[in-house]
What we know:
- It is an enzyme of class 3 (hydrolase).
- There is one protein chain.
- The chain starts with a strand and ends in a 23-residue tail after the last strand.
- The longest helix is centred in the middle third of the chain and has 15 residues, at 383-397.
- It is elongated and about 110 Å long.
- Helix 3 (330-342) runs parallel beside helix 4 and helix 7 runs parallel beside helix 8.
- It folds into 5 domains: 3-24 and 195-290, Immunoglobulins (Immunoglobulin-like), CATH 2.60.40; 27-193, Jelly Rolls (Sandwich); 309-548, Glycosidases (TIM Barrel); 552-655, Immunoglobulin-like, CATH 2.60.40.10; 674-929, Beta-galactosidase, Chain A, domain 5 (Distorted Sandwich), CATH 2.70.98.
- The protein has 10 helices and 64 strands.
- The chain is mainly beta.
- The strands form 16 sheets. A 9-stranded antiparallel β-sheet has the order 50-51-52-53-64-60-59-56-57, with no helix packed on it. Strands 3, 4, 6, 9, 10, 11 and 13 form a 7-stranded antiparallel β-sheet that branches.
- The protein is 9% helix and 39% strand.
Amino acid sequence: xxxKALLLIALTTLSFNKAFCQDVKKQIQYLSGTDNxxxxxxxxxxxxxxxxxxxxxIAVPAHWEQQGYGNYNYGRDxxxxxxxFRFHDEKGVYRKMFSVKDEWKGKKIFVVFxxxxxxxxxxxxxxxAGPIHQGAFYRFKYDISDKLVYGKDNQLEVTVSKMSADPxxxxxxxxxxxxxLGGIFRPVYLEIVPQSFIDHVAIDARADGAFNMQVHIDGxxxxxxxxxxxxxxxxxxxxxxxxxxxxxxxxxxxxVANPALWTAETPNRYTVKTELYKxxxxxxxxxxxxxxxxxxxxxxxxxxxxxxxxxMKGVNRHVWWPETGRSVNxxxxxxxxxxxxxxxxxxxxxxxxxxxxxxLNICDSLxxxxxxxxxxxxxxxATPVGTKLVKEMVIRDANHPSIIxxxxxxxxxxxxxxxxxxxxxxxxxxxxxxxxxxxxxAFNGIDGNHxxxxxxxxxxxxxxxIYMPTEFLHAQDDGGGAAGLEDIWELHxxxxxxxxxxxxxxxxxxxxxxxxxxxIDVNGVNAPDGLVGPHREQEGSVNAIREIYAxxxxxxxxxxxxxxxxxxxxxxxxxxxxxxxxxxxxxLNFDKPLQTGDGFTVISSGKGKFPAIAPLEKGSxxxxxxxxxxxxxxxxxxxxxxxxxxxxxxxxKTKDNAQLAFHHFDEPIDTAVQLMEQDSLIQMxxxxxxxxxxxxxxxxxxxxxxxxxxLSFKDGPLLVSGKAKPINVKHYxxxxxxxxxxTYEGDLKYxxxxxxxxxxxxxxxxYTLNGDQRFAGVSFTYPENFVLGVKWLGKGPYRVxxxxxxxxxxNVWEKxxxxxxxxxxxWLYPEFKxxxxxxxxxxxxxxxxxxxxxxxxxxxxxxxxxxYGLTGAKSHPDLPIGDxxxxxxxxxxxxxxxxxxxxxxxxxxxxxxxxxxxxxLIERQVYFYFGTPKVKGENKxxxxxxxxxxTD
Length: 952
């Protein structure tokens, strides 16, 4: 029978008498490399595809496709190719010679595989090591002690089949919407242990300090004793327990007073050191890190950790690196955890299989809530193989405090017979959930239904179950992700049964194709669904999510003229008082056009701690600012968490656009403006700049300056929505200014052009629109391929959508032209083309020279050129006419999966609806300068060579 020893021991300074052996710990000898960057060559033979039918060398761990062998398959190729489809079922034979030390005789030696795709038949010196292992993402091992030749070389042979002989394994793992590869993709090593050793332990450490450990012992015999001590982060012993070993499983129980609890905000960990004694001598020793925490699902209420309700700000993550597929390393795992936490997220779902063990270790140490998932992409493992894989998964992962749920498969890939098995190996009995995509499939009190919209989410939250979608707001291309997130997140945050959810997904699964000149392949629209690119290139949603999910929430949109340094803040931490967080304020002055610099200069700054505001409470942050704070251009506030990491940086203008915009350069002018008619045009000329206005339409027809006979900015302002019919165009002088006025019937009411002797061109216009509009404003044409780059004062550096305004900050930004289509090569971010918010001025750098646009009115959007938002039958959403637009309203962006949210976004929530205009007159003013002003600090005009870029 299982022997149970219960011993409650207070803190003590007693110590065990230890007679240490030198080899009481598990020894590891790697046969492969340790990760994708540190590999070892093995002999290899492949049955089909590239480099097949001959022995050669291959790096291990790796996928053989990435080493130039075999053929590629994406899991949904059976859909793509239909009747012409076939999975490439190559077999790969691996061989590796290795030595075994003579001194290891009498010990147990295991060969351990961390992950093999997909079936693995293992032989040692020609003898079978054991049954063929089936299942790609799980650690398995064989006792090979009796098959080895000691003191000599031995041969390991592994035959790997990409397609499993078990159809359910193929259904669960390989008929899936992700890249499916082959080979030994995680490390292989020997474990050398004594005849009596601790195979593994399972820990249940509760928030009240209760500590329960199940110790699994191999080689039980007379005279064995277990002794364990719990050690805190200061290496101080805080608890001890011992028991006699009478069976292969021993339970150790104790209680620790006031342990520091593990949460994603406070990832406190302890170490339990366990020693196996034989007749008073240590024969084996192992250490295991763990955390004290208690997980509960309180049905019809919420998810509780340590007695506190928590909500998931999560993302789905594939294990991925473009050059090496699912063979990665601890540095990649670390950067992914840091990236997730950078977005102020607190949770990650391991979709759709268990990750590398290093990833879970990092989630433990840095703090992320983890859903560890058994593979099963829409179809489940059969019970016999699934039973083995659940055991392998849970035994490996059970002691990670970061794992708060086991997920039994995805979207119908649930074998209900396996649900109870998780608790057989996890004595903490974590909840098991099902990640599903069909309404009404709640399990264990949690509805995880995928891709609901705002209104169906609202309905589910009003129902009886906790709602925690394990996938939502599919982030293909530039859609989804943060677009629509604020509305849905606020629903979850404020709803009793809202538990948050997991965005799909973190990374674009772009694979370097060694059969296609190393191009990165995202398999069309199947795999570019990440918030970041394959090499973690950050899309616009990243910073938007940072702001939406910031645990310090600030809703102040603009500074009040009577601002005295007080800002209302809301604490959206679950466990952290804001007095553990710090801040920095800065008063800024921005660079001007023609200047070079960092974008801004810090005039003054200060630091401090936030006031004591309890979790979920609101309060006021007060900062002592200089009395002259309104004399500067902007005020910035940066918040830092208790580890010193930046949470977010907010910037507010202290002046309006009328003060920050410009419409003059400091240069001496001694000529007057000229005004004349020329055929169908009205011509204004000043300071070497000539503007031509069509006298029939009132629109800009052409431009020229002393360096170029023609400039290509023209054909505007045209309404992007609405109609305009010219009524009258007239021109006249007003003192030293040339004026052209045009009036219209329809939605456009008037355009007025003014030019003074400096060459600055002022454009005033007014229009009215009624009803729902995708966009509103005016446009001009300009060839995109003439543009080298742009510099602007406004929100940036990323483009925005109506339902993804967050994440941009007010500053001077500079960007070179790129042709990035989000989610596709070359993943150059931020994208150049798009909608930019709250623009004050913009400096266009073109092959025709620079020109300048200045906007004295607040809250104007500038659209730059044509671009894709979300790939479908056509680009979505529709774009305004023209190339450069000045807009008062811009469209929302949809998402790939949410009913019909690709084209009709209103279901994503209020911010995703079209713009409703009420027919009121909208009046705007824009200043242009189409010349080359004097360089700042110089006494002479900068001379450009005279060129004729366009002769038209």
